[in-house]
Design brief:
Layout: H1 3-16, H2 21-28, H3 32-40, H4 47-57, H5 61-72, E1 76-84, H6 90-102, E2 107-111, H7 115-118, H8 131-154, E3 160-166, H9 178-187, H10 192-196, E4 201-205, H11 228-242, E5 248-251, H12 257-272, E6 278-287, H13 291-296, E7 300-309, E8 317-325, E9 328-338, E10 343-351, H14 353-360, E11 370-379, E12 382-388, E13 395-402, E14 417-420, H15 429-444
Parallel strand pairs: 1-3, 1-4, 2-3, 4-5
Antiparallel strand pairs: 6-10, 6-13, 6-14, 7-8, 7-11, 8-9, 9-10, 11-12, 12-13
Length: 446
């Protein structure tokens, strides 16, 4: 049981007894904030407090301790994808990842690239009955391996486990026609959203065929057959396949190879929260984009988002989010704490639908639920998110997450910026949730 689940359990016990947080705080001789933090999973009661809780709620102390102990023994498992175009440096990157994160206390597990297991051993897409038959075989093995790694990881004696998939399920899409991939998803009784967002983060290394052509070679991978031009096209297709993931990073060839890998490690470390889960973001108010043009781009993916803010204390912002398309959604809990206008600590956790619905009961009713359509756009090796609000008809918000506060940003030519609003409080989602009616009037009057 993780800290949030244990907090939910305490909340359930209190509500079943029809107690307020203030009443429980009075009975235990602690502050209201202490009860709130226990129930939010931000802290935990000590043994004396557990005894008082057990007595107050008329439950077994042993039961409370066992649930708390299961929280302490919870294994922190992160599953990421390392993908990229041909000859991008993945093989070397895997060694760097292993050394770097093992030194930081992680048990690192690698799910090997499926194509390089099948093709050198005679099972090739050009010799199979059809490309589709081959992709079904590859996807079947991919899913089986990931399931095995995750199942075994849960029983390991390690506090932090990093599962690195050398390519993931969405890589298959780059080698298939759209109707074939849809057929594949149907055959596996899943959806593209579910498969794509089942990974916690995705990191794409750009092929040497794009900017470092003199280093492009077929010699170090006997499953690689692409010419430089074919490699460029394939690199774009793979980026397009993963576009739409909530944490997708593209590592380009703007530096020498060692620095490229150092940037990769920095991005992974930032995602994992080493030393802490920092997010650096710039935000722009833009003129309303051409929606039809966006939806026609292969490197742009549409996502629907419903964002609900929860009751919280201190300076921590809590929200739940439903994210997906066409009735297929993934659910997330996010907690944020601002460091400055540009930088913040952000912790995000994937939820089950039931966990999401349960947390909705904690909605802060003083805040409006934000509904928006997000267009995730990969352009020139950068990843932008354009938010369209249903009530707005002349402007939109564009965001980009950065690996460094001083990172240079290459805005796509077809995006017309009205102004940067990174430091403008009224364009923060939290503030918009407080002032949505006023914000909509202000927008329409511009």
């Amino acid at each position: 049981m993780d800290s949030i689940k244990f907090g939910n359990y305490l909340t359930e016990l209190r509500r079943n007894n029809d107690f307020t947080q203030r009443y429980v705080a009075y009975e235990l001789d602690v502050s209201d904030k202490a009860i709130s933090k226990w129930e939010n999973g931000k802290s935990k009661p000590n043994l004396d407090e557990l005894k008082k809780l057990a007595n107050l709620y008329d439950v077994s102390l042993t039961d409370l301790i066992e649930k708390l102990d299961s929280n302490e023994k919870q294994v922190n498992i992160s599953k990421i994808v390392l993908t990229g175009g041909p000859c991008a440096g993945k093989t070397t990157a895997l060694t760097w990842i292993n050394n770097y994160f093992r030194d930081r206390g992680y048990k690192v597990l690698f799910v090997p690239e499926t194509a390089t297991e099948l093709i050198p051993n005679g099972l090739t897409p050009w010799e199979a009955k059809s490309n589709y038959d081959y992709q079904v075989a590859q996807a079947t093995l991919q899913k089986t391996k990931e399931m095995i790694f995750e199942r075994v990881a849960k029983g390991m004696n390690a506090e932090k486990i990093l599962i690195v998939c050398d390519r993931g399920m969405l890589d298959n899409k780059a080698y298939m026609k759209n109707n074939e991939f849809k057929r594949l998803m149907k055959e596996f009784n899943t959806t593209e959203v579910e498969e794509r967002d089942s990974y916690d983060a995705v990191f794409h290394l750009v092929s040497a065929a794009k900017g470092k052509e003199k280093f492009y070679t077929l010699e170090n991978n006997n499953a690689r057959t692409e010419t430089i031009e074919e490699a460029r096209i394939l690199d774009d297709k793979i980026i397009s396949a993963w576009t739409g993931h909530p944490h997708f990073r593209i590592i380009d060839n703007s530096t020498e190879f060692e620095e490229k890998l150092e940037r990769l490690l920095k991005e992974i470390a930032s995602f994992l929260g080493e030393p802490e889960p920092m997010e650096i973001e710039r935000k722009y108010l833009i003129y309303y984009p051409d929606i039809k043009a966006l939806e026609s781009m292969p490197n742009c993916t549409k996502v629907e988002i419903a964002q609900t803010y929860l009751k919280s204390n201190d300076d921590v912002e809590r929200r739940v989010r439903a994210r997906g398309i066409d009735g297929n959604y993934m659910y997330y809990l996010t907690e944020k704490k601002n460091i400055n206008n540009l930088k913040r600590i952000e912790v995000e956790k994937r939820l089950t639908q039931n966990e999401y619905l349960k947390l909705l009961m904690e909605q802060d009713n003083s805040l409006h639920t934000i509904h928006k359509t997000r267009y995730c756009l990969s352009s020139d090796n950068e990843y932008f998110e354009i938010d369209i609000y249903p009530e707005w008809d002349n402007q939109a918000i564009m965001e980009i997450e950065l690996s460094d506060e001083n990172q240079e940003i290459k805005i796509p030519d077809f995006i017309n910026i009205y102004k940067e609003v990174t430091d403008n409080k009224i364009y923060k989602n939290y503030e918009m949730a407080k002032n949505m009616p006023k914000q909509l009037i202000r927008n329409k009057n511009k």
